[in-house]
Amino acid sequence: MDNLISAQFSFFISLLFLVIGAAGSLVFMKNDKLANWWGNGLAIIASVFGLASSLSVLFGSSVFSYQVNSAFSFLSFSFQVDKLSAFFIFLISFIALLASIYALGYVKHFYKKYNLGALGFFYNIFLAGMLLVASAHNAFFFLIVWEKTSLASYFLVIFENKEKENIKAGSLYFVMTHVGTAFIILAFLLLYQATGSFDFGIIKENIGNISLLTKNLIFVCALIGFGTKAGIIPFHIWLPSAHPVAPTHVSALMSGVMIKTGIYMLVRILMDLLPGMELWWGILILVIGMLSSLLGVLYALTEHDIKKLLAYHSIENIGIILLGLGSALVFLALDMKALAVLGLVAALFHTLNHATFKALLFLGAGSVISKTHTRNMEEYGGLIKYMPQTAFFFLIGSMAISALPPFNGFFSEWMTFQALFSGIQTVGHFVGWVFILAAGALAFTGGLAAACFVKAFGVSFLARPRSEEVKHAKESELSLRIGMGVLALATLILGIFSGSVAKILTEVVSDLQNFQSAEKIFSTGASLFKLQNSFAAVSLPMIFAALLVVLVAIYFAVLLLTKNRKVKVGVTWDCGTNLGPRMEITATGFSRSIITIFRGILKPSKQTDVEYRDADMRYFPKDNTIKLEIKDVYGAYFYQPVQNLVAKLSTWVKAIQNGNLNAYVAYIFFTLVILLLILVI
Amino acid sequence: MILVPVLAPLFLGIVRKIKAHFQKRKGASIFRPYRDLWKLFHKDEVISEDASWIFRFAPYLIFAVTVIVGASIPLFSTYFANNLLSDFLVIVYLIALSTFFLALSGLDVGSAFGGFGSSREMTLAALTEGGFIFSLLVLSFLAHSTNLFSISASVASLSLLNFTPVILAFVAFVIVMLSETAHFPFDNPATHLELTMVHEAMILEYSGKRLALIEWAAASKFLIFLSLGANLFFPWGLTMQLGLGAIALALGIFLLKVLVLTIFVAVLESNIAKFRFFRLPDLLFIAFILSVMAIGLIL
Question: How many helical (H) and strand (E) elements, i.e. helices and strands, does chain A have?
Fold first, then answer.
C-alpha cells in the first residue's frame, strides 16, 4: 500500500512541478538568470520524483492507474503505469535530470540573446508531455499529449530563431511529425472501430475477434506513424535537420528519449494491445532495422557537423533496437515465447543504453560547440588539452556507442546478436535467411560505428587545433561536467551490472499481454549471464576486472623493467616541413575511403571549380574549389515524387474553383438534389 | 596466460626467416625479434608534444588485451577452460577495443602518416568484423555453443561429411587473419612507404618501451589468430588431462600446427603482392559471403 501511494504520489508531484516550472518560467521571462534556475531547477526536482515513482513500480510489484472522466464520453484522462511505462518513465526522468543539470550551465550563453522564459516554459511542457505519453491509457488522451509533445519540441527546435536554417529545420520537423500523427490517428480509429472504445484496458479485453485486414492495417499505420517519430528509414529526413539546431540539452532529450517514445508505443500496440502476430510484421521490422542501421551509420560517416553525425547515429541505433524488436515479433508469431523475451529484452536494454550514451555524446558535443562557437568538426582539434574532462567523457561515450567492452553498448549488442543467432538456428527456411542478413548488418554496423567514432573523437579532440578559434576554448563549467560525468559513470555501471538490469527488464517484458506464459530464457548467476540452452554466456564484470588487473600488472612490470629510461618530449616527425594544421587528417579525408567503397549507396559527387589568374592562358590557378556532395536519395526518389503527385492533384482539384458565381450556385443545387434523392431512396 | 606473449616473437621470426629464404637471403635468426624487444625496452623514448594521455596509455591497453585474449583461447589444453571470457563475440570486441585505441593513438600525434593510417585501419577493421564474426559463427552453429573451448571439443568429433562448412569457414578465417594481423595482401608489415602503410603508419611515432609493447602486442595478435585457426578448425591434439606427458605432447602438436600455418602465411606473403587498397573490400566481402554459404550448408 505504501509503495503504491508513493509511486502514484511521486508521479503526480513530478507533473505538478513541471507545470509550476513552465508557468514560473513565463512569469520570470524578463530576468534571465531567474528563469534559467526556475525552469531547469524545477525540472530537476520533477525528474527526481519521476525517478522515485518509476523505480518503486519497477522494483515493487505494483501497477498504478488513475482516471478522471471528462465531459466527452470517449475522452477520459486516464493513466496507467505498468512496468513497461515505468521503464520508459525511468528513462525519461533519468536523462531529463542530467540534461537539466547540464542546462543550468549551458543556457548561460543564451543570456541577453534569446528569451529564456520561453525556453523554460516549452522545456517543462515537453518533459511533462513525454511523461504523460509514457503513461497514457486512453487513445484520445494519448493523442492530445502526443501533439503537445510535438508542439513543445517544435518550439524548442526553432528556439534560436535568428538563424534561417533553424526555421527551415523546424518546419520540416513540424510537417513530418504531423504526417506521423495522422497515421497514428488512423491506427487508433481502426482500433476504435474494432473494439468500440478508446480506452486501452477495454481495447485489450475486446480485441479478440479483430479481422485480419484491420490488424494488418493497424500495424502498417502504427509502424509509419510511430516510425516517423522514431526516425526509421525512409521517414527519417527530419532527424538530421532538427536535432542539430535545437539547444544541446533539448537535442540530447530528443535523441535519447523522444524518439524512444515511438518505440514505446510500437511495443505497447504490438505486444500489449493486439492479440496475435503475423510473421511478415516481424520480417518487415527486421528489414527496416537492417536498412536503418546500415544507412544511418553510412550517412553518419559522411558528416562533419558533429551534431548531425550524432543524429545519424541515433537512426542507426533505432535500427539496432528494431532488429531486437523484429526478432521478438517473429518469435511471437512462431509461438517461441522464451526467445521473444530475449529479443524484446535486448531491444529495451539497447533503448536504455542508447539514451544514456547518446545523451552523453550530445552533451559533450554541446560543451565543445559552446566553447568553440562552431559545429564544424574540421575546425576542431587538440581540444583534449583545453577541455580534458569533456574529452574524457566524450571518449567514454564513443567507446560505449561502438559497443566496446566493458561498457553498456557491448552488452545490448551482444544480446541482440544472441537473439538473431537463436533465430538463425531455430526458425525455418526463408525467415532464417532474413536473420542471417540481419546479423550480418549488425556486424558491419558495429564496425562502421567504431570507425565513425574514431573519426569524431580523434578529429575533434586529438592532435593540434585546426583553427584559431579553437585555441581559445576552455574547460566546461561544473554543471556541464556533472551532467556528463554522471552519464559516463552510468554507462560503465550499466555495463558491469548488465545481468541485473536484464533481469529487471525480463520482469518488465513478462508483464505484457503476449508474454504471459514465457519460460525462462536466461539465468544470471554470480557474475555470469548465461542463455538457458547454454549456447552462450558472457560476464561483463569479469571483463572489466580482467582488463583492470592486467593493465595494472603490465604497467608496473614495464615500470620495473624500464626504471632508468627517460622520456623526452619532442616534435612530431614532420618530414622537414613546418608542422601546421594542414598536415593533420580532416574528418572528410578520414571517411573518404569508406564513402568510396560504398559509393553505390551513398552516391558521392565531386565538383571542381578552378579560377585562373588569366582566363585566356589558363595556366596559373588563383583559386581552386572542390565541392564534395552526397546525393539526397530520399528527397529525390521518395519525397519529391510524392510532393509532385500532391501538387498535381491539387492543381487538378483546383479546377472546381473557377470563380464563376453561377457555377457555385449550380454546385449547391446539384448537392441538394443528390441529398434529397438519397433521402428518398 | 604468458604462453602467447612468450612464444609470439618466435613465430614472427620464423615468418621473416622464410620470407628471407624466398628472397635468396640468409635472413636474421628466428630469435631476432626477442633481441629487438630487449633493445627497445632499453632505449629512451621521445614523445611528441602534440600527443595526449591516449598516446601514452594506448600501448598498455593494447598489450593487456592481447594478454587477456591469449589467456581465453584454447591453446593446447581444454583443462583451463574459461567460461567467463571465452565467448567468441567477447574476443572479437576485445580485439576491436585494441584497434580502436591504436587508431586513436595514430591520430593523436597529428602527423599525416598517423591520420591516414588510422583511416585505412578503421576502414579495414570495420569491414573485417563481419567476416570475423561470421566465420566463427559457422563453428558455433556446428558446436551449438559460442564458447571457444566447446567449439574445439565439438569440431574434433565431427564426421568428414560435415567438414565442408568448416573448410569454407577456414578460408574466410584466413582472409580475416591476414587482414587483422596486417599481412599481405592487406598490409605490408615491413614497409614504411606511405603508399603501403596501414599498421606501421599508426605506430610511426612510437619509440622505446611503448614501441616494444605495441610490436609485442602485434606479434601476440598474430599468434592468437594462428592458434584460433589451428585449434578451432583443426582441433585434434588438445588434451584434457593435466599430466606432464600429456601436456608436453599437446604443446608439441600445437606448436606443429601453428608452424604449418606460419609457413603457409610466409609462403603466401612471398608469392603475392599487396593489393591496391580499393580491391581489399572485395576480398573481405568474399570472406563474409563464404561464411554465409557455410551457414547455409549447415542449416
Answer: 26, 8
